[in-house]
Write a structure and sequence with these properties.
Number of domains: 3
CATH topology of the largest domain: fumarase
Helix content: 25-40%
Number of strands: 17
Radius of gyration: 23 Å
CATH superfamily of the largest domain: Fe-S hydro-lyase, tartrate dehydratase beta-type, catalytic domain
Number of helices: 14
Oligomer: single chain
Mean pLDDT: 95
Distance between the termini: 61 Å
């Protein structure tokens, strides 16, 4: 019988979440580099390059890969022969470890968890509670898997209750196309099949803990139905042409994972959970001999990649930008922004809407007219930083505020990630405004272009407060131009045709 101490367990949880905040799994880096080397779409290749460069910078600086440092999810398998030396239950120990990790002074992580969702949704301040899954198993050890799940990808999760003989590949591909770019491809796709509704989703989440190994499967024939489904889905999804960040390209998924479980004769539950470019997970075992020890990777494990400015890229002085000049920006073009931008995301948009709908006035200093508005909730800065990692959040959550922002508040443009809805694109065209995207998964890289940051309004919203950032050559892509042309429509359409034509030629 082995004794696991509270101190060792809590410390291991804390160390693990700190570790995955800034280190990608090596198998993911290898797969992403392979995707970079074979990518033929210039826009997608540039996006993957930013993700890889960001990954190395985060590893070197020991700062978060992404501004969304995730909901903490913990899988614990407790051996029946284990004895605990603890004055609190397992769930409390897990949350103590999460709290220590997210409030670490040398690498503060963003607290994203709010209290009961139907109430005031006040931030808990320490990213607790986590979501905990516990199993009692044979043995005298404790096995733990940690994952920090960003909600750009989690919001795209799907549950399909199919009929027993429905086409799983077709159903999943349809869902992936509906997901668009909000989950920050390229990444992994977890598929859970069988059991009940909740079991299928749990299987899908667990599958994402496995290493990227699709290339080994590609080199041999599948040995069972699950492996065949993995390959079929991998090929079918990549043939959609969605590509990195939804810009169009050859790689949308780096791997597809499948876990299955017996189910009812009249059902075929299918859980679908994507994992974004900020894939973060680690496992460890405790045997009563101290806390877990995590291997420190070598920076040589990351590829050397230089970020190249394309032929059509232009440098933009925001102090000289007006509604006439933005008409020259075209969908797909890369811009390097220098000047001042404002930030606002979900809570700030709602606060602004509530104030204006009741006849109130916005706080002094908050003038949105002809400004660029960046959808971001940054990580708190360390002592040496102006601001912490500050990548974009998914933009279509702000679509319901587009009329308010673009017409009433006269915002000139928005910066976020992924596609916008058709009504928002129509409003962009009507108002002569623009929508730009930054690369999701490049948060630390983007933060290095931010030279100053100050809170302008709604400081009580924490990471969702309105900031004014001063930026120097912040890289963005024109996603929707003043004429309503969208790279998220034209890019995947073009590459879907090119992939189809290439396949026909090879046949």
């Amino acid at each position: 019988m082995k004794v696991i101490s509270k101190a060792d367990f809590v410390e291991s949880i804390a160390l693990g979440f700190q570790y995955i905040s800034h280190y990608h799994p090596p198998d993911f880096i290898k797969a992403l580099h392979q995707a970079y080397n074979r990518e033929k779409s210039g826009e997608a290749k540039n996006a993957i390059a930013q993700i890889l460069i960001n990954s190395k910078m985060a590893a070197e600086g020991k700062r978060p890969l992404c501004q969304d440092t995730g909901l903490a999810i913990v899988f614990v398998k407790v051996g029946m022969g284990v004895t605990w030396d603890s004055d609190v239950p397992l769930e409390s120990m897990v949350n103590l470890g999460i709290r220590q990790a997210y409030m670490n002074a040398s690498n503060p992580l963003r607290a994203s968890i709010v209290t009961f969702p139907l109430g005031q949704r006040a931030n808990t301040g320490d990213n607790t509670p986590g979501v905990i899954h516990t199993q009692i198993v044979v043995g005298d050890e404790v096995e733990v898997h940690l994952t920090a799940k960003g909600f750009g990808s989690e919001n795209k999760a799907r549950l399909l209750m199919l009929n027993p003989h429905d086409d799983v590949v077709a159903a999943v591909v349809d869902q992936v196309q509906e997901m668009g770019a909000g989950w920050c491809p390229p990444g992994m796709l977890g598929i859970g099949i069988g059991g009940s509704a909740e079991k299928a989703m749990l299987l899908a989440k667990e599958s994402l803990l496995d290493p990227v190994d699709i290339h080994q499967l590609l080199d041999r024939s599948p040995e069972n139905d699950a492996e065949k489904l993995r390959l079929d889905l991998y090929h079918a999804i990549n043939q959609t042409g969605i590509g990195a960040q939804g810009l169009g390209g050859l790689t949308t998924v780096l791997d597809v994972k499948v876990k299955q479980y017996p189910t009812h004769a009249g059902a075929l539950p299918v859980g679908i959970i994507p994992n974004c470019a900020a894939t973060r997970h680690i496992g460890f075992r405790l045997t009563g001999k101290g806390p877990a020890v995590f291997p420190v990777p070598k920076l040589d494990d990351w590829p050397e990649i230089a970020l190249e400015q394309g032929e059509n890229a232009i440098k933009v002085d925001l102090s000289q930008v007006d509604r006439n000049s933005v008409k020259q920006w075209k969908a797909g073009q890369t811009l390097y922004l220098t000047g001042k931008i404002l930030t606002a995301r979900d809570a700030a948009h709602k606060r602004i809407s509530d104030i204006l709908s009741t006849g109130g006035s916005l706080p002094d200093g908050l003038n949105l007219k002809d400004r660029l508005l960046y959808y971001v909730g940054p990580v708190p800065g360390s002592d040496s930083e102006v601001v912490g990692p500050a990548g974009p959040t998914t933009s279509n959550r702000m679509d319901k505020y587009s009329q308010l922002m673009l017409k009433r508040c006269e915002v000139l443009g928005m910066i976020g990630k992924a596609e916008r809805g058709n009504s928002t694109i129509d409003t962009i065209r009507e108002t002569g405004s623009v929508y730009l995207i930054a690369v999701g998964g490049a948060a630390y890289l983007i933060s290095k272009s931010i030279t100053s940051a100050r809170v302008v309004a709604f400081e009580d919203l924490g990471m969702e407060a309105v900031y004014e950032f001063e930026v120097a050559e912040m890289p963005v892509i024109v996603a929707v131009d003043t004429e309503g042309a969208s790279i998220h429509k034209s890019g995947p359409e073009r590459w879907r045709k090119e992939i189809s034509a290439s396949n026909t030629t090879q046949d």
